[in-house]
């Protein structure tokens, strides 16, 4: 059964974050808050954990369109091909924030994602997840936890999330109520930005 850990976004406890990161390093699955909906994620370098998430989501791993949560833009070149100044300016203006940017992937992608031409990059405006990624030392792969009930689409109450997911994951973080609108997805892999999904992120930036 999963651990249920309370972490406050305005002052995330280093000890609590360290506990979560230890579980991620051991191949565990964690549900955490972002600046939009709660997400399910694992260490990007752990094949076994990636397989577990794919199984939970009922998809083949190589078909998964998950985003990578980064601490900031400094590690972008680890997984993304060289981007031009205009693209970088857009990222700098919008992040951290409720956006997922589709960017051209490079050859350093983990083997599970090698066939992908693009990757989705997230830098959420949420101290809990950013501290987790920073302490982990590499991105985590992230997917939102949708609800089967179409009316509510995303569960926002951490206690209800725990009730539902406690036997599927290793940790559920209670970081307060989540949002029920996903991130705005913008494709920057071609010459012009293309809006794939309008979510919480304001489109006036573009």
UniProtKB/TrEMBL annotation:
- What Pfam families does the annotation carry? Sua5_yciO_yrdC
**Coiled-coil regions listed in the entry:** none
Q: Where is the YrdC-like domain positioned along the sequence? A: 14-201
Record-linked InterPro entries: DHBP_synth_RibB-like_a/b_dom (IPR017945), Sua5-like_dom (IPR006070), SUA5_domain (IPR052532)
Superkingdom: Bacteria
Q: Quote one Gene Ontology molecular function term.
A: double-stranded RNA binding
Protein name per UniProt: Translation factor SUA5
> Organism, per UniProt?
Flavobacterium succinicans
């Amino acid at each position: 059964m999963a651990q249920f850990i309370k972490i406050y976004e305005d002052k995330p406890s280093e000890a609590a974050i360290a506990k979560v990161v230890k579980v991620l390093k051991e191949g565990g699955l964690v549900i955490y808050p972002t600046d939009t909906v709660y997400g399910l994620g694992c260490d990007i370098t752990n094949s076994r954990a990636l397989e577990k998430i794919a199984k939970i989501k009922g998809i083949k791993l190589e078909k998964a369109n998950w985003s990578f949560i980064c601490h900031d833009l400094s590690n972008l070149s680890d997984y993304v091909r060289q981007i031009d100044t205009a693209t970088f300016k857009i990222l700098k203006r919008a992040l951290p924030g409720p956006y997922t940017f589709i960017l051209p992937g490079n050859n350093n992608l983990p083997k599970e994602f090698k066939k992908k031409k693009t990757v989705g990059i997230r830098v959420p405006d949420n101290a809990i997840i950013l501290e987790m990624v920073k302490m982990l030392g590499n991105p985590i792969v992230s997917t939102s936890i949708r609800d089967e009930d179409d009316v509510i689409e995303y569960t926002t109450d951490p206690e209800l999330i725990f009730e539902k997911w406690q036997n599927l994951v290793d940790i559920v973080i209670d970081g307060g109520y989540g949002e029920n609108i996903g991130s705005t997805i913008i494709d920057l892999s071609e010459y012009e930005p293309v809006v794939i999904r309008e979510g919480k992120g304001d489109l006036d930036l573009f």
